[in-house]
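Lab notebook, design round three. We kept the backbone fixed and only want residue identities now. Task for the bench partner: fill in a sequence for the structure below.
Input structure tokens:
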């Protein structure tokens, strides 16, 4: 039996411990996400917000937040958006990633992923871009990431 991620978030998000359990659960479902130790802040259809502290493990050779760690954070946010937006009658898969690094990331980061507008889910296969803005602790956008996802009806 597969848990409904939005229902699980709504049940757990009322406490810091519940948000931590949900975040770790996301990491256990997709273990690579555990490398940035991200914490889920918000989840809703069409939107997700994920936070990661700047730790030694995610730094680059210049001491900033590593570009690929930022992409990992963006992909986690995108995955949450897809999981809570795409109905169970459909499936999704990312088909690429495009990243624009705007400023050096010196602090903890917050990634906000948005799928807007939320598409109509019919029988035809289609692609939808999930846009992710990554901001530092000063609310400066340090990166923009676009992750197109292919959505199709389950057979």
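Proposed sequence:
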């Amino acid at each position: 039996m597969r848990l409904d991620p939005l229902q699980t978030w709504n049940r757990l998000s009322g406490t810091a411990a519940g948000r931590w359990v949900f975040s770790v659960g996301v990491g256990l479902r997709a273990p690579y996400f555990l490398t940035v130790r991200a914490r889920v802040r918000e989840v809703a259809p069409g939107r997700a917000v994920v936070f990661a502290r700047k730790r030694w493990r995610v730094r680059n050779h210049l001491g900033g937040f590593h570009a690929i760690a930022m992409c990992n954070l963006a992909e986690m946010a995108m995955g949450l958006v897809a999981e809570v937006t795409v109905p169970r009658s459909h499936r999704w898969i990312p088909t690429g990633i495009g990243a624009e690094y705007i400023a050096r990331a010196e602090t903890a980061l917050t990634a906000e992923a948005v799928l807007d507008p939320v598409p109509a889910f019919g029988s035809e296969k289609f692609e939808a871009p999930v846009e992710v803005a990554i901001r530092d602790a000063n609310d400066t956008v340090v990166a923009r990431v676009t992750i197109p996802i292919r959505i199709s009806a389950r057979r």
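Keep this in mind before ordering anything: Residues 103 and 142 are 5 Å apart (CA to CA).
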